[in-house]
């Protein structure tokens, strides 16, 4: 998570400074697109603060109220961020753009707009490069999209998407601003604002989908399940690992539940010892697995099925 923090802090600093300059430039030039960009940067600033707050909350130690810890606080605040991007970022930008398309206003001197937009591209681009480098360290040979879908740390890909949307929006605004002044088409200013808002809504929907999935509970990868089953069935007391259930409580905490069939001739002490060995082996191999709950079963030779062990 430290890597993600670096990208969040860089994005926070960039967005805070850029939002102020965009609002000032938008007020001087009477540009809806610049105001929309200012709103975009301001929303991104709030998003970064919420992510940092979510990260801090997610690190609270487990207690009686939350025995598995507070890790899912990060997923909750990530979902809130996606909603803010949709409502405040995308919705307001599109609203501003439609108003300026219906009632276009002559644009004033665009010089400051170009200066601010140019600086914004540099700052946002730098933040995007930092976020991309940090996220690239976690890809482990996967494609970018696969890595995003499999990532359990939303703080990494949220910043990546936000910065990507910011750079794309800035380039659109620059193009529309130039064409609007060059060909005297003030409606292009409103069109640019609508396009920026549309980009934000698309991004917010993607982020909401991923954050919702994490909030509801995602399990470990199939290949990891196979490795864990192999560890369990390697124990001489085990006949078969019947079922494996798992969920990520946070990017760094996995809760694992196993239903395991043990040899019928084992007594309670033998089974408890085997459970301790299995738990230790799994935790030693997979550092993210913090909780291992094992439900023992005994194979019944008479009816060839597994019965819950109650002994």
Automatic annotation (TrEMBL):
<dbReference type="InterPro" id="IPR040177">
    <property type="entry name" value="SLC30A9"/>
</dbReference>
<keyword id="KW-0472">Membrane</keyword>
<feature type="transmembrane region" description="Helical">
    <location>
        <begin position="7"/>
        <end position="28"/>
    </location>
</feature>
<protein>
    <submittedName>
        <fullName>Cation diffusion facilitator family transporter</fullName>
    </submittedName>
</protein>
<keyword id="KW-1133">Transmembrane helix</keyword>
<dbReference type="GO" id="GO:0008324">
    <property type="term" value="F:monoatomic cation transmembrane transporter activity"/>
</dbReference>
<dbReference type="InterPro" id="IPR002524">
    <property type="entry name" value="Cation_efflux"/>
</dbReference>
<dbReference type="InterPro" id="IPR036837">
    <property type="entry name" value="Cation_efflux_CTD_sf"/>
</dbReference>
<feature type="transmembrane region" description="Helical">
    <location>
        <begin position="191"/>
        <end position="208"/>
    </location>
</feature>
<dbReference type="GO" id="GO:0016020">
    <property type="term" value="C:membrane"/>
</dbReference>
<dbReference type="InterPro" id="IPR058533">
    <property type="entry name" value="Cation_efflux_TM"/>
</dbReference>
<feature type="transmembrane region" description="Helical">
    <location>
        <begin position="156"/>
        <end position="179"/>
    </location>
</feature>
<feature type="domain" description="Cation efflux protein transmembrane">
    <location>
        <begin position="10"/>
        <end position="216"/>
    </location>
</feature>
<feature type="transmembrane region" description="Helical">
    <location>
        <begin position="34"/>
        <end position="53"/>
    </location>
</feature>
<dbReference type="Pfam" id="PF01545">
    <property type="entry name" value="Cation_efflux"/>
</dbReference>
<dbReference type="GO" id="GO:0006829">
    <property type="term" value="P:zinc ion transport"/>
</dbReference>
<feature type="transmembrane region" description="Helical">
    <location>
        <begin position="74"/>
        <end position="102"/>
    </location>
</feature>
<feature type="transmembrane region" description="Helical">
    <location>
        <begin position="114"/>
        <end position="135"/>
    </location>
</feature>
<keyword id="KW-0813">Transport</keyword>
<dbReference type="InterPro" id="IPR027469">
    <property type="entry name" value="Cation_efflux_TMD_sf"/>
</dbReference>
<keyword id="KW-0812">Transmembrane</keyword>
């Amino acid at each position: 998570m430290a890597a993600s923090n670096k990208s969040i802090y860089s994005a926070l600093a960039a967005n805070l400074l850029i939002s102020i300059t965009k609002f000032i430039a938008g007020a001087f030039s009477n540009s809806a697109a610049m105001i929309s960009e200012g709103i975009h940067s301001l929303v991104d600033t709030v998003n970064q603060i919420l992510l940092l707050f979510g990260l801090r909350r997610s690190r609270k130690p487990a207690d009686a109220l939350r025995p598995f810890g507070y890790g899912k606080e990060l997923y909750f605040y990530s979902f809130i961020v996606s909603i803010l991007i949709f409502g405040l970022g995308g919705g307001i930008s599109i609203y501003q753009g439609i108003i300026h398309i219906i009632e276009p206003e002559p644009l004033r001197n665009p010089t400051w707009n170009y200066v601010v937009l140019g600086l914004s591209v540099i700052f946002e681009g730098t933040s995007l490069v930092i976020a991309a480098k940090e996220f690239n360290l976690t890809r482990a040979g996967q494609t970018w999209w696969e890595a995003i879908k499999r990532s359990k740390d939303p703080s990494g890909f949220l910043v990546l998407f936000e910065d990507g949307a910011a750079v794309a929006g800035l380039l659109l605004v620059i193009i529309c601003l130039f064409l609007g002044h060059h060909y005297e088409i003030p409606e292009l200013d409103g069109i640019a604002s609508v396009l920026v808002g549309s980009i934000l809504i698309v991004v917010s929907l993607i982020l909401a989908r991923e954050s919702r999935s994490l909030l509801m509970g995602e399990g470990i990868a199939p290949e990891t399940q196979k490795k864990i089953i192999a560890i369990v069935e390697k124990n001489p007391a085990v006949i078969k690992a019947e079922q494996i259930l798992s969920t990520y409580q946070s990017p760094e905490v996995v809760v694992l539940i196993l239903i395991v069939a043990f040899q019928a001739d084992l007594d309670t002490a033998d089974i408890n010892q085997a459970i301790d060995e299995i738990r230790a082996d799994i935790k030693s191999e997979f550092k993210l697995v913090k909780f291992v709950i094992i439900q023992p079963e005994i194979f019944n030779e008479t009816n060839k099925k597994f019965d819950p062990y109650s002994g």
